[in-house]
Amino acid sequence: MSDDSRPGSVPVAPAIIASPAKRIDALTGDPDFMTSLARGLAVIHAFQERKRHLTIAQISHRTEIPRASVRRCLHTLIKLGYATTDGRTFSLLPKVLTLGHAYLSSTPLAVTAQPILDRLSDQLNEACSMATLEGDEILYVARSSIPLRLISIDLSVGSRLPAYCTSMGQILLAALDDAALEDYLEHTTLQIKTSRTLHTPQAIREVVAQIRQRGWVISDQELEMGLRSLAVPLRDSAGQVLAALNVGTPVSRVTRQELETRFLPVLLEASKELSRRLFF
Question: At 151, is the pLDDT very low, low, confident or very high (cuts 50, 70, 90)?
Fold first, then answer.
C-alpha cells in the first residue's frame, strides 16, 4: 500500500456549517459582505438533478433562508434569465451554465486535468473524474466518461454527491483537520445508500485514519451496489490537497486486487503528473 500521504494536512475547505443561511449569517459582520448575493447563490445551489422544480417553501426549507428573501432572489434570477416559473414551481434555465463555464474556461485546474483524465480513461477503459469539496458534498470539476454508464446517476461536470460515501469525498474529508472533520460529522446526515455504506461517525473516522496513512482509498459499493471506485489526492507544491482523482469500475469487471495492483499506480502517477504541470 502506498504511503503517499501527509497526516493532518491543511484543510481543503472551511468547517461545515449546518445550512446556507447559517453560513451567511456567520459572515454578515463583514461590512463588505453582500448578503443578497450570497442568498441568491444559495438559492441556485438548492436545485439538484432530482429536484429540478422547487417551490419557494421547498427552497426556504433547504436553505433556511426566509421565504420572502427566497422570493426576491427568484424574481431577480427570472428577470436576468437564469430561472423560470410555471406559477407554482421554479426551475433553472441553461443560462446558469455560463457561470460554470466562466470557471472551467479560466481555471488551470480543470483545463489541465481534462487531457490527463481523457488519457487515463482510455488507458484503463473506465470513467475517471476529479472533484473538490464543496460544503458537505463533492463537486465534479472534470470528468472523462465511457459510453457504458455504471450507475443510475448521470454524472457530469457540476454534479454533486455526498462526500462520506464516495471515494473522492473520503479523500477530501481526510485532508480536513480534526476540528473541521468533527464539524462535518456533527452537521451531516449520514444516510444509508446501500448495505455497504459507512454511515456512522466512527466508521468515517476510521476510514479517514486509513487514508491519512495510506494516501488512497477504495469505496466498495458504498454509493451504489455494483460500483467500486478508487481515489487519490491531488496536492499542490506545499502538499495541500486541492482535489481528488478517481476511477470508477463495475464489480463484475474489476476486482479490488486489480484496483490496487494495476489501477492504483496509474492513478497515482496521473496525480503526480497533474501536480507537476500545475505547480512546478
Answer: low
